[in-house]
Amino acid sequence: MAKSETNNKRIIEGLLGVVFLMVISSSALAQKTISDFQGLPFISNYEASEYQAGIQNWDIVQDDLDRIYVANNLGLLEFDGKAWRRYGLNNTKVRSALWHKDGRIYVGSQADFGFLESDSFGKLSYVSLADSLPSELRNFDEAWKIFAQNDHVYFCTFERIYSYDGERLKALDFGKRLDISFQVNQQILTQVAGEGLFRIVNDGFEPVLGGEFFKDKRISNILPFNRDEWLITTFSHGIFRYNGKISEFEMDRSFWKNEYLINYSVRLKNGNIALGTQNSGLFVINEKGELLHHLDKNSGLMDLTINYIFEDSQKSLWLAMNNGLARVDLLSPFTLVDDRMDLAGSGYAALKKGEVVYLGTNNGLFIWQNGKIEFVSGTEGQVYGIQDIEGLVVLNHHNGTFIIQGNRSISVSEKQGSWILKKIPNHPNLYIQGSYTGLSLVELKNGQLQFIREIPGFDESSRVMEFDGETLWVAHGYKGVFRIRFNSDFSEVIESKLYNSAQGFPNDVLINVYQVANRLIFTANGGFYTYDAEKDFFFPYDEFNDLFRYGTVIADLEADELGNIYFIEQSQLGVIKLMNNNQRELQTKSFNKIKRFWNDDLANVIVLDHQEILIGGKQGFVLYSPQMDLVQTDLPKVFFREITNQGIQSQVIFSGHKWGGAGDDQPKFDFAQNSFLFEFASPHYESDGQIEYQVMLENYDEDWSPWSSEYRKEYTNLREGEYVFKVRAKNVFDQVSEPITYAFKVRPPIYRSLAAYTLYTILVGVLLFMGFRLLDKRHQKQTQALELEKNKALKRKDDEMETLAQQSAAEIMSLKNAKLQAEIDFKNQELTSSAMHLIQKNKLLQTIKNSLSNLATDEKNKMLSQQLNRLIKSIDKDLEGGEEWSQFAENFDQVHGNFITRLKERFPDLTPQEIKFSAYIRMNLNTKEIANLLGISVRGVEIGRYRVRKKLGLSRQDNLSDFLLRF
């Protein structure tokens, strides 16, 4: 095995392998016989319930976009890898189909033939050509074959053959009933029952040399074989070679039986021959008649009757069956070894030894030999490893360790949980065994394995381990990796050191150890690492890390003898390929196909040899044949299945066929129809639905969308503008198609159209003009209003000022009045004071006068009496107060509004004494005070009041004082 080979041997074998691959052709590489180890191809079955049509299928063609069309009992089926469509074609059974370079799909059916052609919206519609035939040529039952040759299309029925040049139909009538027709090497051939084989020449029929041999042998197909040689298959008489002479094609009778009925045959692109039978499924043989594949119900087909075989552009075989359809990935480098081959359980371990392959699953051990798989009794349960130890087949099992001899198992140790045996360097007969609970010592003695003892000092589970000299590295999935050292006789572990994140690993989990090219490689949750013994530390191994992204978690590694390293990582499988320049290249794309099949529990990859790699699967194993893994050169195709315009109404604007919307006339849509739904497909059938798409709408999306399996994209409420929708596809091998586009334009709404903007401009101009006019008028009005307001304000100011002036004048007047009032009050006070003074003075003078008069009367001295009389006269004169009255009257008039003057003028009859009397009454003096002022008695005052009342004309009811106060 590769793990024990030297570098020189690997290089020599690698060079030999390169020479071998250069010498043999790809077709020769495919010439494996069923005696070799090969699994079953991937088969996809399509039931009638899935494609919603009849169970019987008769013909299969493919168009330039790789869509598949199937002639079905209920019409023509179309399959684009995602969805099925059915075209009813006048409700007739369709027997034949032909995709032509003119884009039409020609079909033959019961009593009819014609073509499907797309309209400007890409919608297929059926046109019957047979309906244009005259009634005498219309009497045929079914058109079983259609061929295209020299710009003519030939519709082959059992009555006659019809030639169509694109405009006219011509009937080629043999005069007898025809059988099935064929096309080979640009010739149209037909068989006539009882006469043999004929060819069409110049719109007539010409017998083929030696063709009468087949007058009683019904031909199923004629194939090109070698140069100038045909291979003719018959329904029930076998296969013949024809080159002007007829000879039987030799078949390997170990598999072929005469009772097999050949319904159809086809020459595959790699030169092999596929035979579809009536009662035994599909056979694929090589040019020597040796069996390569036999597929039947045990292989995964759901029907044994194969009516037609078609090899598509991706080299998959499509089988039109009596009950459904099937697609077979016959040339895939991957095949399945599973329960269809009687292998039960998930795959965990394998070993190739000579002509036998041992397969270990969770259900036990199986032997694969001579194309058959058989269970080894006594091995029920989980198998962990199968090893070739010095010619012995050793089984590491949940129940212990066993030796396998033939179909028997012999127990070596019943210690439960045997993981693996590792040979101790420099001790050729000693092995360390890893188990659930630690390590044990096993010895190979006399050709037999013997369990010696358990080795104390280490009790961890030891599934993954490798020797470096006599040091053993044991990886533990949850703790790290242990460095184990033993004593000299391996009876005890003397050192057990754990290495994990403290010694350079990114963390403590998912650490493994492998020996590749005689070098230890450690893997962890972060890539590849190597051990530096001097520093006792682990460092990244950039030679491999550079090939992977950061965070790589390797689940298993194994190298072949050519230096290629196969690996399983958490998210991918692949091979680190050793190239001619000794550089390494990571190849993973081919392995994407089987991601969903591999077993992620104790994931394992087993190199049987450089041409056969087994990968543990959820159900059995996946067998990988590197020599079959040819470079994929053809990019996948992508097309629009349907484009729907949505809005006020929903309408399909493209239905997936001949493009009617491309060209200079970019489709335009009203704003009310500004939503779109795009559906697309990529008919890469080997991807088995694992197609991803990216989309982008220019003028809307900034960049391509993330890859997604979603096959439709909807845009709603788009603004007006020009858009280009793009979509591209990526198949399971990470190949990306060229993008396809659909350009369209959304018109603006009427309120955002050019006419609308023109109208808006006019309206804006008018509105601006009117606005300016209005503003001008408003300005004028505002100016006038401002002027008026200004005038009003000024008037208000004037009024306010006038009011203020009036208020000021009033205040001044009030002040003046107050001042006058004060002066009047003062005058009044003065008058009153003066009056009171006069009263006092007069009283005093009167008293003095009276005293003097009394004294003068009593005085005897005449001289003194005279003087006293003179003094009395002087007093009388003073009491008259003439001057004082004048001053008093003047002041009184000032205070009382010229009372005295007005009184005199109105009542001139009043005497001076009565005037004074009236003034004193106005001053509100009492009778006594008035008497003192006038020097009269109180009685005199009463008489005076009476006189005044009389002169004033007052009646008894009138109050003199009130009258004088109001006067």
UniProtKB/TrEMBL annotation:
<feature type="transmembrane region" description="Helical">
    <location>
        <begin position="754"/>
        <end position="775"/>
    </location>
</feature>
<dbReference type="InterPro" id="IPR036388">
    <property type="entry name" value="WH-like_DNA-bd_sf"/>
</dbReference>
<keyword id="KW-1133">Transmembrane helix</keyword>
<keyword id="KW-0812">Transmembrane</keyword>
<dbReference type="InterPro" id="IPR016032">
    <property type="entry name" value="Sig_transdc_resp-reg_C-effctor"/>
</dbReference>
<dbReference type="InterPro" id="IPR013783">
    <property type="entry name" value="Ig-like_fold"/>
</dbReference>
<dbReference type="InterPro" id="IPR011123">
    <property type="entry name" value="Y_Y_Y"/>
</dbReference>
<dbReference type="InterPro" id="IPR015943">
    <property type="entry name" value="WD40/YVTN_repeat-like_dom_sf"/>
</dbReference>
<dbReference type="GO" id="GO:0000155">
    <property type="term" value="F:phosphorelay sensor kinase activity"/>
</dbReference>
<keyword id="KW-0472">Membrane</keyword>
<dbReference type="Pfam" id="PF07495">
    <property type="entry name" value="Y_Y_Y"/>
</dbReference>
<dbReference type="GO" id="GO:0003677">
    <property type="term" value="F:DNA binding"/>
</dbReference>
<dbReference type="GO" id="GO:0006355">
    <property type="term" value="P:regulation of DNA-templated transcription"/>
</dbReference>
<protein>
    <recommendedName>
        <fullName>Two component regulator three Y domain-containing protein</fullName>
    </recommendedName>
</protein>
<keyword id="KW-0597">Phosphoprotein</keyword>
<feature type="domain" description="Two component regulator three Y">
    <location>
        <begin position="685"/>
        <end position="731"/>
    </location>
</feature>
